[in-house]
Amino acid sequence: MKRFATVAVTALAPVSWGSTYAVASELLPPDRPLFTGVMRALPAGLLLVALSRTLPKGEWWWKSAVLGGLNIGAFFPLLFLSAYRLPGGVAAVLGSAGPLFVVGLAALVLGERARLRTVLAAVVGAFGVSMVVLTAEAELDLVGIVAGVVSSASMAAGTVMTKRWGRPEGVGPLAMTGWQLTAGGLIIIPIAAIVEGAPPALDGRAFLGYGYMMLINTGIAYWLWFRGIGRLTATSVTLLGPLSPLTAAAIGWAALGQALTPVQVTGMAIAFGATVAGQLTIGAPRPPKTESFSSPEKNDRNISMDLTDGPVGR
Description:
By secondary structure, the chain is mainly α. Helix content is 72%, strand content 0%.
Protein backbone atom coordinates (compact mmCIF):
# COMPACT_ATOMS: atom_id res chain seq x y z
CA MET A 1 0.00 0.00 0.00
CA LYS A 2 2.87 2.36 0.77
CA ARG A 3 4.22 1.98 -2.77
CA PHE A 4 0.86 2.75 -4.37
CA ALA A 5 0.45 5.77 -2.11
CA THR A 6 3.82 7.01 -3.39
CA VAL A 7 2.71 6.34 -6.97
CA ALA A 8 -0.51 8.27 -6.41
CA VAL A 9 1.33 11.26 -4.95
CA THR A 10 3.93 11.22 -7.75
CA ALA A 11 1.10 11.10 -10.31
CA LEU A 12 0.06 14.57 -9.17
CA ALA A 13 3.10 15.93 -11.05
CA PRO A 14 2.05 14.94 -14.61
CA VAL A 15 -1.55 15.78 -13.72
CA SER A 16 -0.37 19.30 -12.85
CA TRP A 17 1.66 19.52 -16.06
CA GLY A 18 -1.53 18.75 -17.95
CA SER A 19 -2.85 22.18 -16.93
CA THR A 20 0.03 23.99 -18.67
CA TYR A 21 -1.75 24.51 -21.99
CA ALA A 22 -4.94 25.88 -20.43
CA VAL A 23 -3.06 28.30 -18.16
CA ALA A 24 -0.72 29.44 -20.96
CA SER A 25 -3.54 29.97 -23.47
CA GLU A 26 -5.84 31.79 -21.04
CA LEU A 27 -3.48 33.85 -18.87
CA LEU A 28 0.02 34.20 -20.34
CA PRO A 29 1.43 36.43 -23.12
CA PRO A 30 1.30 34.66 -26.51
CA ASP A 31 4.35 33.43 -28.41
CA ARG A 32 6.75 33.60 -25.45
CA PRO A 33 7.33 29.93 -24.59
CA LEU A 34 11.00 30.33 -23.67
CA PHE A 35 10.32 33.29 -21.40
CA THR A 36 7.60 31.14 -19.84
CA GLY A 37 10.15 28.38 -19.37
CA VAL A 38 12.46 30.77 -17.51
CA MET A 39 9.60 32.05 -15.35
CA ARG A 40 8.57 28.51 -14.53
CA ALA A 41 12.01 27.19 -13.63
CA LEU A 42 14.29 29.90 -12.24
CA PRO A 43 12.09 31.59 -9.57
CA ALA A 44 10.83 28.19 -8.39
CA GLY A 45 14.39 26.86 -8.21
CA LEU A 46 15.67 29.82 -6.24
CA LEU A 47 12.71 29.60 -3.86
CA LEU A 48 13.30 25.90 -3.18
CA VAL A 49 17.02 26.47 -2.65
CA ALA A 50 16.19 29.23 -0.16
CA LEU A 51 13.69 27.00 1.67
CA SER A 52 16.12 24.08 1.84
CA ARG A 53 19.05 26.34 2.80
CA THR A 54 21.33 23.86 1.05
CA LEU A 55 23.78 24.45 -1.80
CA PRO A 56 25.57 21.79 -3.85
CA LYS A 57 29.03 20.73 -2.74
CA GLY A 58 31.91 19.28 -4.71
CA GLU A 59 30.87 17.21 -7.71
CA TRP A 60 27.23 18.06 -7.14
CA TRP A 61 27.74 21.45 -8.78
CA TRP A 62 28.34 19.83 -12.16
CA LYS A 63 25.94 16.96 -11.54
CA SER A 64 23.15 19.43 -10.75
CA ALA A 65 23.99 21.34 -13.92
CA VAL A 66 23.83 18.15 -16.00
CA LEU A 67 20.53 17.04 -14.45
CA GLY A 68 19.07 20.53 -14.72
CA GLY A 69 20.15 20.69 -18.35
CA LEU A 70 18.56 17.35 -19.20
CA ASN A 71 15.32 17.74 -17.22
CA ILE A 72 14.76 21.47 -17.76
CA GLY A 73 17.34 23.42 -19.76
CA ALA A 74 17.27 21.23 -22.88
CA PHE A 75 13.84 19.71 -22.39
CA PHE A 76 11.83 22.96 -22.28
CA PRO A 77 13.28 24.64 -25.43
CA LEU A 78 13.13 21.42 -27.47
CA LEU A 79 9.59 20.74 -26.32
CA PHE A 80 8.50 24.25 -27.27
CA LEU A 81 10.25 23.99 -30.67
CA SER A 82 8.41 20.74 -31.31
CA ALA A 83 5.10 22.30 -30.27
CA TYR A 84 5.63 25.24 -32.63
CA ARG A 85 6.69 23.11 -35.61
CA LEU A 86 4.11 20.36 -35.18
CA PRO A 87 0.39 20.14 -34.43
CA GLY A 88 -0.13 19.78 -30.69
CA GLY A 89 -1.34 16.21 -31.07
CA VAL A 90 1.82 15.05 -32.84
CA ALA A 91 4.02 16.77 -30.25
CA ALA A 92 2.06 15.10 -27.44
CA VAL A 93 2.44 11.65 -29.00
CA LEU A 94 6.21 12.15 -29.35
CA GLY A 95 6.27 13.13 -25.69
CA SER A 96 4.33 10.02 -24.72
CA ALA A 97 7.16 7.92 -26.19
CA GLY A 98 9.34 8.99 -23.26
CA PRO A 99 8.60 5.84 -21.21
CA LEU A 100 10.11 3.70 -23.96
CA PHE A 101 13.36 5.68 -23.75
CA VAL A 102 13.38 5.28 -19.97
CA VAL A 103 12.77 1.53 -20.17
CA GLY A 104 15.82 1.12 -22.42
CA LEU A 105 18.07 3.51 -20.49
CA ALA A 106 17.02 2.07 -17.12
CA ALA A 107 17.98 -1.40 -18.32
CA LEU A 108 21.41 -0.18 -19.47
CA VAL A 109 22.27 2.24 -16.67
CA LEU A 110 20.31 1.02 -13.64
CA GLY A 111 20.01 -2.67 -14.36
CA GLU A 112 16.20 -2.48 -14.21
CA ARG A 113 14.77 -5.45 -16.04
CA ALA A 114 12.85 -4.46 -19.18
CA ARG A 115 9.82 -6.70 -18.85
CA LEU A 116 7.64 -7.33 -21.89
CA ARG A 117 4.53 -6.29 -19.94
CA THR A 118 6.14 -2.98 -19.07
CA VAL A 119 7.09 -2.30 -22.69
CA LEU A 120 3.55 -3.19 -23.79
CA ALA A 121 2.11 -0.83 -21.17
CA ALA A 122 4.28 1.99 -22.53
CA VAL A 123 3.30 1.25 -26.15
CA VAL A 124 -0.41 0.94 -25.36
CA GLY A 125 -0.27 4.16 -23.32
CA ALA A 126 1.27 6.03 -26.26
CA PHE A 127 -1.36 4.53 -28.58
CA GLY A 128 -4.14 5.70 -26.27
CA VAL A 129 -2.69 9.21 -26.16
CA SER A 130 -2.52 9.23 -29.98
CA MET A 131 -6.25 8.46 -30.10
CA VAL A 132 -6.92 11.46 -27.86
CA VAL A 133 -4.74 14.10 -29.52
CA LEU A 134 -4.07 13.18 -33.15
CA THR A 135 -6.27 14.54 -35.94
CA ALA A 136 -6.58 13.62 -39.59
CA GLU A 137 -5.22 17.05 -40.54
CA ALA A 138 -1.97 16.58 -38.62
CA GLU A 139 1.08 17.51 -40.73
CA LEU A 140 4.61 16.35 -40.07
CA ASP A 141 7.75 18.49 -39.98
CA LEU A 142 11.21 16.93 -39.78
CA VAL A 143 12.70 19.59 -37.50
CA GLY A 144 9.69 19.39 -35.19
CA ILE A 145 9.82 15.60 -35.08
CA VAL A 146 13.55 15.57 -34.27
CA ALA A 147 13.03 18.21 -31.56
CA GLY A 148 10.15 16.22 -30.06
CA VAL A 149 12.10 12.97 -30.02
CA VAL A 150 15.22 14.59 -28.56
CA SER A 151 13.17 16.39 -25.89
CA SER A 152 11.65 13.07 -24.81
CA ALA A 153 15.10 11.45 -24.81
CA SER A 154 16.51 14.35 -22.77
CA MET A 155 13.84 14.06 -20.08
CA ALA A 156 14.24 10.27 -20.08
CA ALA A 157 18.01 10.57 -19.61
CA GLY A 158 17.46 13.11 -16.84
CA THR A 159 15.03 10.78 -15.09
CA VAL A 160 17.41 7.82 -15.27
CA MET A 161 20.48 9.80 -14.21
CA THR A 162 18.55 11.36 -11.32
CA LYS A 163 17.85 7.82 -10.15
CA ARG A 164 21.41 6.70 -10.90
CA TRP A 165 23.15 9.44 -8.94
CA GLY A 166 20.66 9.56 -6.09
CA ARG A 167 21.22 12.40 -3.65
CA PRO A 168 24.16 13.48 -1.46
CA GLU A 169 24.18 12.38 2.16
CA GLY A 170 21.59 14.31 4.19
CA VAL A 171 20.09 16.16 1.20
CA GLY A 172 16.39 15.75 0.50
CA PRO A 173 14.38 16.10 -2.73
CA LEU A 174 13.47 19.73 -2.03
CA ALA A 175 17.08 20.88 -2.36
CA MET A 176 17.75 18.59 -5.33
CA THR A 177 14.71 19.98 -7.13
CA GLY A 178 15.83 23.53 -6.43
CA TRP A 179 19.32 22.89 -7.78
CA GLN A 180 17.98 21.42 -11.02
CA LEU A 181 15.33 24.07 -11.63
CA THR A 182 17.85 26.86 -11.00
CA ALA A 183 20.41 25.32 -13.35
CA GLY A 184 17.78 24.68 -16.02
CA GLY A 185 16.39 28.21 -15.80
CA LEU A 186 19.85 29.73 -16.12
CA ILE A 187 20.48 27.63 -19.23
CA ILE A 188 17.25 28.85 -20.88
CA ILE A 189 17.86 32.57 -20.21
CA PRO A 190 20.38 33.21 -23.05
CA ILE A 191 18.33 31.11 -25.46
CA ALA A 192 15.18 33.11 -24.62
CA ALA A 193 17.08 36.41 -24.99
CA ILE A 194 18.40 35.48 -28.45
CA VAL A 195 15.18 33.98 -29.80
CA GLU A 196 12.49 36.12 -28.16
CA GLY A 197 14.28 39.34 -27.20
CA ALA A 198 13.29 41.51 -24.23
CA PRO A 199 10.70 40.20 -21.74
CA PRO A 200 7.08 41.19 -22.48
CA ALA A 201 5.01 43.59 -20.40
CA LEU A 202 2.98 41.68 -17.81
CA ASP A 203 -0.52 42.41 -16.53
CA GLY A 204 -2.38 40.99 -13.54
CA ARG A 205 -3.55 37.91 -15.43
CA ALA A 206 0.01 37.13 -16.48
CA PHE A 207 1.30 37.49 -12.92
CA LEU A 208 -1.44 35.12 -11.76
CA GLY A 209 -0.58 32.61 -14.48
CA TYR A 210 3.15 32.76 -13.88
CA GLY A 211 2.59 32.48 -10.13
CA TYR A 212 0.64 29.28 -10.66
CA MET A 213 3.19 27.93 -13.13
CA MET A 214 6.10 28.72 -10.81
CA LEU A 215 4.64 27.42 -7.53
CA ILE A 216 2.24 24.61 -8.46
CA ASN A 217 3.05 23.56 -12.00
CA THR A 218 6.83 23.57 -11.52
CA GLY A 219 8.04 23.96 -7.94
CA ILE A 220 5.73 21.50 -6.19
CA ALA A 221 5.22 19.25 -9.21
CA TYR A 222 8.92 18.73 -9.90
CA TRP A 223 9.54 18.19 -6.20
CA LEU A 224 6.94 15.40 -6.24
CA TRP A 225 8.44 14.01 -9.46
CA PHE A 226 12.02 13.84 -8.14
CA ARG A 227 10.75 12.59 -4.78
CA GLY A 228 9.02 9.76 -6.66
CA ILE A 229 12.18 8.96 -8.61
CA GLY A 230 13.99 8.51 -5.30
CA ARG A 231 11.38 6.04 -3.99
CA LEU A 232 10.21 4.18 -7.09
CA THR A 233 11.88 2.69 -10.14
CA ALA A 234 12.62 5.09 -12.99
CA THR A 235 10.30 3.07 -15.23
CA SER A 236 7.43 3.23 -12.74
CA VAL A 237 7.69 7.01 -12.54
CA THR A 238 7.90 7.62 -16.27
CA LEU A 239 4.89 5.40 -17.01
CA LEU A 240 2.83 8.07 -15.27
CA GLY A 241 3.67 10.48 -18.11
CA PRO A 242 0.50 9.87 -20.20
CA LEU A 243 -1.54 11.40 -17.38
CA SER A 244 -0.32 14.82 -18.59
CA PRO A 245 -1.96 14.86 -22.07
CA LEU A 246 -5.01 13.10 -20.63
CA THR A 247 -5.39 15.83 -18.03
CA ALA A 248 -4.95 18.48 -20.71
CA ALA A 249 -7.75 16.91 -22.75
CA ALA A 250 -10.02 16.68 -19.69
CA ILE A 251 -9.40 20.33 -18.77
CA GLY A 252 -10.04 21.37 -22.36
CA TRP A 253 -13.40 19.61 -22.23
CA ALA A 254 -14.44 20.72 -18.74
CA ALA A 255 -13.08 24.28 -18.61
CA LEU A 256 -12.52 25.43 -22.21
CA GLY A 257 -15.58 23.95 -23.87
CA GLN A 258 -13.65 21.62 -26.18
CA ALA A 259 -15.65 18.63 -27.37
CA LEU A 260 -14.48 15.04 -26.91
CA THR A 261 -15.35 12.47 -29.55
CA PRO A 262 -16.07 8.81 -28.74
CA VAL A 263 -12.66 7.92 -30.19
CA GLN A 264 -10.96 10.37 -27.83
CA VAL A 265 -12.87 9.06 -24.82
CA THR A 266 -11.87 5.52 -25.79
CA GLY A 267 -8.25 6.62 -26.14
CA MET A 268 -8.35 8.22 -22.69
CA ALA A 269 -9.64 4.96 -21.20
CA ILE A 270 -6.94 2.94 -22.99
CA ALA A 271 -4.12 5.28 -21.93
CA PHE A 272 -5.31 5.44 -18.34
CA GLY A 273 -5.71 1.66 -18.21
CA ALA A 274 -2.19 1.21 -19.57
CA THR A 275 -0.85 3.62 -16.93
CA VAL A 276 -2.49 1.62 -14.13
CA ALA A 277 -1.44 -1.71 -15.63
CA GLY A 278 2.13 -0.47 -15.95
CA GLN A 279 2.29 0.18 -12.22
CA LEU A 280 0.99 -3.32 -11.47
CA THR A 281 3.77 -4.94 -13.51
CA ILE A 282 6.62 -3.22 -11.65
CA GLY A 283 7.98 -4.31 -8.31
CA ALA A 284 9.90 -2.45 -5.66
CA PRO A 285 12.96 -0.47 -6.80
CA ARG A 286 16.44 -1.95 -6.56
CA PRO A 287 19.12 0.07 -4.82
CA PRO A 288 21.19 2.12 -7.29
CA LYS A 289 24.70 1.07 -8.18
CA THR A 290 27.35 1.87 -5.61
CA GLU A 291 28.22 5.56 -5.28
CA SER A 292 30.28 7.53 -2.81
CA PHE A 293 27.15 8.61 -0.96
CA SER A 294 24.04 6.93 0.39
CA SER A 295 21.11 5.70 -1.66
CA PRO A 296 17.88 7.66 -2.10
CA GLU A 297 16.09 5.12 0.10
CA LYS A 298 18.50 5.79 2.94
CA ASN A 299 18.34 9.52 2.45
CA ASP A 300 14.56 9.40 2.70
CA ARG A 301 15.01 8.19 6.29
CA ASN A 302 17.34 11.02 7.19
CA ILE A 303 16.02 13.94 9.17
CA SER A 304 16.57 17.04 7.02
CA MET A 305 15.39 20.59 6.54
CA ASP A 306 13.85 19.57 3.20
CA LEU A 307 10.48 18.33 4.45
CA THR A 308 11.37 14.99 2.87
CA ASP A 309 8.70 13.04 4.68
CA GLY A 310 6.34 15.86 5.49
CA PRO A 311 2.83 16.29 4.13
CA VAL A 312 2.64 16.58 0.40
CA GLY A 313 1.42 19.90 -0.83
CA ARG A 314 3.23 20.54 -6.48
